[in-house]
Design a protein that fits this description.
This protein is α+β, with helices and mostly antiparallel strands. It folds into 2 domains: about 70 residues, 434 Repressor (Amino-terminal Domain); about 240 residues, no CATH class. It is about 50% helix and about 10% strand. An 8-stranded mixed β-sheet has the order 1-7-6-5-2-3-4-8, with helices on one face. The termini are far apart.
Length: about 325
Amino acid sequence: MNEPNEFQQQLFSYLKQQLPPHLSLVDEISELLDISVDSVYRRIRGEKSLTLTELKLLSGHFHFSVDQMLNLQNDSVLFQAPGLNGTVPLFSDYMKGMLEQFKYFNSFKTKQIFYLCKDIPFWYFFLYPEIAAFKVFFWSRTINNSPEYAGQQFSLEEHPFTDCYKTGVQILELHNQMHSIELWNLESIHSTINQIAYYKDAGIFRSKADFERVLESFSLLLSHLKVQTERGTKFLPGRDAGGGGNIEFYVNELILGNNTILLKLDDTDQAMITYNVLSYLICRDDRFVKKAYATFNNLLNSAALISKTGEKERNKFFNKLKEKVDGLAAGNS
């Protein structure tokens, strides 16, 4: 690939795959580079070479690495880190950013999400308002160290976080339109169990009633996930199960990985890796994504499918999760 026009043709073919079907690559580039539509076409056809400035603008806007496009065989991989620059956002703003991500995912015709669940996927906490409020308070107070919650106790009456819950339900609605393949482990609920236990022991729950309502809500969340797994489809509590995206639910009791999300959006693939609890990195490098998929599939090979089948294994898995929550209620966690 020594000829400039060959490189440009491959570049623009790659960029077209990154855009949802309803967006025009020509219009996007025309606006970004501030050039005419005809000038864009001349660059796409390779009749006019891109300048370094134009290549820099394209790379920054579409989040690709030039060495990746040139097929340079090195160990460098480009990651996009939303929210890296600037101060820690309000949690409501963080959730709005997540909502925009799911709107982007759903702009594609084919959309699949593969999740290696070290923890319960973020959006499932918004199935019920009480556990959602607790998690938002925990993330804001303990993880983000938000000063407005410093020294405060958790109370459902005082901290309902209705705005975050509303956004969370919107995220769930979009997530439920996607086909999901999830890989869980018995330890996937441990972090939430430990958080609730810590708040109880440290006296951060304002009342016993708040603690009990959060536990009840957590138990309802697990029960709903069990029903989803049994039916093999995703839906919100109290709504019709028809029309939602399918879910393939696997359990691997031997290996616990990290929180990794893999996405198949039409002809493109990408990976999302979490770090610092709530932050995430996005990678579209083919080498990295293919390796992540290979690892995910290897873990699936040693896992049990419990959605729509494997009733015995499904009951065994969710009963063990329920026992952990019941143990917390009894003070035996």
